């Protein structure tokens, strides 16, 4: 398995403060990174399959403390949300966020 990323020219979404290309090459380092998942759209990963920790009832919603933390981070750091653009049709934008 591998993780790939891209850096895109996003000045249109960041009030003119896009990537500073003079600081390239850009690097990211991870330690003790673990990810669990399965292929999107497979029945093995359906919400009805309680085998996976993310399908357990306690993971269906944030508890009040988690919700406050999420709202705080979102208020402080979310600069742009393309899902709020008029006419957005991306699948991930159909989720509650």
TrEMBL record:
One of its GO terms (molecular function) is hydrolase activity, hydrolyzing O-glycosyl compounds. One of its GO terms (biological process) is glucan metabolic process. GO terms for cellular component: apoplast. InterPro entries: Beta-glucanase/XTH, ConA-like_dom_sf, XET_C. It holds the Pfam family XET_C. Residues 49-84 form the Xyloglucan endo-transglycosylase C-terminal domain. This is Xyloglucan endo-transglycosylase C-terminal domain-containing protein.
């Amino acid at each position: 398995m591998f993780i790939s990323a891209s850096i895109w020219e996003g000045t249109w979404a960041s009030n003119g403060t896009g990537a500073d290309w003079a600081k390239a090459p850009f690097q990211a380092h991870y330690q003790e990174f673990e990810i669990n998942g399965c292929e999107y759209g497979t029945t093995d990963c359906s919400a009805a399959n309680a085998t996976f920790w993310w399908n357990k009832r306690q993971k269906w919603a944030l508890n009040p403390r988690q919700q406050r933390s999420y709202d705080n981070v979102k208020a402080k750091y979310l600069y742009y949300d393309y899902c709020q653009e008029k006419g957005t049709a991306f699948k991930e934008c159909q989720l509650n966020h």
